[in-house]
Design brief:
By secondary structure, this protein is of the alpha+beta class. Helices cover 53% and strands 15% of the residues. The protein has a domain of 58 residues: Roll (Nucleotide Exchange Factor Grpe, Chain A, domain 2). It contains 5 helices and 6 strands, in the order H-H-H-H-H-E-E-E-E-E-E. The strands form 2 sheets. A 3-stranded antiparallel β-sheet has the order 1-4-5. A 3-stranded mixed β-sheet has the order 2-6-3, with no helix packed on it. The N and C termini lie far apart (169 Å).
């Protein structure tokens, strides 16, 4: 019996290896640090301020000056921004005005052409080919001007208005009212609601 047990025991020991012994962790690092640094573990005492009261007062004054300068810079910046915005608006307005003046000038330069056509029609028979050609050109020009809201206005029989009429001559006709336009030398034109060209007229003035 003893022999059989002794034979089995070595096999059992070989099949079941021994578990390694657990090593307890130690705080050797902390302990070594504590030993090497005697101040370790003690709470650090708060450092006293190295600035004197005079230096602190000086810093307070400098801080107040910096804040005042910052406010002044901000105010100047806002002022410049507002001035620049007004400048842009003024420039845009001037550019728009320049465009309108250029357009008015361009359209006004076409009016003498229509005047010449009207004079030519007065000296030709209405049924002639020349009159028909002039009438066609006149209609096209007036149609072009209408696209820009340019249109002629009648003045004969109306009261003289210096905003719309230029008095070239005066007459005294008893049968007509005073300050009434009797004849028209040159037709006036409106562009939208403003005068593009004043009408040249003869005004009745009764003394």
């Amino acid at each position: 019996m003893t022999d059989e047990k002794s034979k089995k025991d070595p096999k059992e020991k070989a099949s079941s290896p021994k578990e390694p012994a657990k090593v307890k962790k130690t705080n050797t690092v902390k302990e070594n640090k504590a030993k090497s640094d005697p101040k370790a573990g003690k709470k650090a005492s708060p450092k006293k301020s190295a600035l004197s009261s005079k230096e602190i007062d000086k810093l307070i004054v400098e801080n107040a000056d910096l804040q005042a300068n910052t406010k002044e810079v901000q105010d100047n910046f806002l002022l410049l921004a507002a001035e620049f915005e007004n400048y842009k608006k003024r420039i845009n307005k001037d550019q728009q005005r320049s465009k309108e003046l250029y357009k008015d000038s361009m359209l006004a330069n076409l009016l003498p052409v229509i005047d010449d056509i009207d004079r030519a029609l007065q000296h030709h028979d209405k049924d002639s080919e020349i009159s028909e050609g002039f009438s066609m050109i006149r209609s096209k020009l007036l149609s072009y001007l209408e696209n820009y809201k340019v249109s002629p206005f009648n003045v004969v029989g109306e009261k003289f208005d210096p905003e719309k009429h230029d008095a070239m001559l005066t007459r005294a006709v008893e049968d007509e009212k005073d300050n009434i336009i009797l004849e028209e030398f040159e037709k006036g034109y409106m562009i939208d609601k403003k005068v593009l060209r004043h009408a040249k007229v003869i005004v009745n003035i009764i003394e």
